[in-house]
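Onboarding guide, step 5: your first structure request.
Type a short instruction followed by the sequence, for example:

Predict the 3D structure of this protein.
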Amino acid sequence: MTARILIVDDHAVVRDGLRMILEAKKDLSVVGTAANGREAVAKAGALRPDVILMDIAMPGMNGIEATRVICEAEPSIRVIILSMYHTGEHVFRALQAGVRGYLLKESAGEEVVRAVRAVMKGKSFFGKGVERPSKDVFVSGPSSPKSPLESLSIREREVLQYVVEGKTSAAIAEILGLSPKSVETYRSRLMKKLGVTNVPSLVKFALQHGFTSLN
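The system replies with C-alpha cells like these:
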C-alpha cells in the first residue's frame, strides 16, 4: 500500500526537500503541499492524504491549530509534526491536537521515512532529540495537565495568532470578516483569560506556551 502524503511548511525549500526524500521511496507518494495552516486544512479535506507532515510555525494558522481542526474533521489522517522546536509545551500541545509523531527538522531525512511508515502501521513515532511523553499525556480527565491556551475559543485562538504576528485590529478584522470592534473584544477577552495585560506580554506568553514560534 502506498502512503499518500501532504507536506505543510511555509518554506518552499523545505517542501521541495521533503518531496525529494519521500518520492525516492516506492511506497511513499506526495499528493500535495501547503504553505500555511489554513491551506493545509483545505487540502486535507480535498486530498484526503494518509499522512500529513506539518510544521508548527506558520502564518495565519499555526500547525498545531491546523492539526486540531484536521483531526477533528478527519480522524483517520495521521499527522506528524516536523519542527525546529521540541519543548515540552510544544510536544504536549501537539499530542493534545492529535498528532501521531514528532520530529525535529535538524534530524529530517531517513527518519522522516521511518516516521511515515510507523504511523501508517498505527504506531507513534518520536524522533531523535524529542523526549517521548509519558502515557499520562494520552489519558484525558481531571488529572491531565492543561495548557492555559485550552481556555480559548477557536475564534480567540485565531485572533491571538494574528496579534502575535503583529497585525492591527483592522487588518485582523478584514482577514476574519469581523468588525475591528469585535476583534478588540476578542483580544480583550483572551488576554483576560490568559492573565496578561498588554500585547508584548501576550506575545511572550504565546512563545513560552508553544502557541507560535519565531522563524
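Each response can be followed by summary notes, for example: Confidence is low (pLDDT under 50) at residues 138-145.
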